[in-house]
Amino acid sequence: MRTAFIGGGVMAEAILSRALSGGVLKASDVRVAEPVDARREAVASSYGVSVTAANQSAAADADLVIVAVKPQHLDHVLADLAGKLGAMQTVLSIVAGIPIAKFTTSLSHEAVIRVMPNTPAQIGAGMSVWTATAAVPKETLETSAALLGALGQEWYVADEGYLDMATAVSGSGPAYVFAFIESLVEAGVYLGMPRDMATTLAVQTVAGSAELARGSDLSPATLREMVTSPGGTTAEALRALKAHGFQSTLLEAVTAAHRRAKELGGS
Questions:
Q1: Domain coverage including residue 142
Q2: pLDDT tens digits, residue range 122-139?
Q3: Does pTM surpass 0.85?
Q4: Cα separations (Å) of 102 from 14, 21, 72, 114, 245?
């Protein structure tokens, strides 16, 4: 499928890299629009794709147009593409917080996919939640699912409202996890552990626990109970977490992120 990338950045490059290495896209079918000369040359050299400085040129004959710019640059891109897309072309947006209606209205174009990915997509361990309008062709839906599958796991939803919820849970989620790891490392250092040792223990514990949860049929609550002996060290630690509002603080953080996502989307 002929695919255009409008904009660069970490997530766009993650999609491009994983899609090419996974065989979902062929380099000969990809064109990237990038305004910065050095960046454009680096993309062409690294991935063997066609590059251009012009958004219209990249999108001209593409079946799928992936828009991956920062929100503050979106209006310029939409102005470039308005009235230039054919009925069989589809726009796929990973622009955070921007609803589908912004694209359909600004472009006068109905075939739009909206995706909320996250940064572990860089290593094929991402979580992407996505939705699409009824005008998106079946073949493009299938290619988009394969494209997002190359980034990790993908979850399609019919209701766009879930995208803002996903922003708060999985989109921002890696930052919560990194903050937890950072705090666990600092706690180990506070106890007297060398920082490199504390970092290795914390990172591997989080990674191993996530893998155990992924591969188990048991709920996270049951897995937690299996680690917790009555009257033991873990029980005392969990008591302290509860007393200091661990669960309620996380709930408030996710709620705040969801609220902000809706504000950015104008809802």
A1: 3-158
A2: 999 999 999 999 999 999
A3: yes
A4: 25, 32, 13, 11, 39
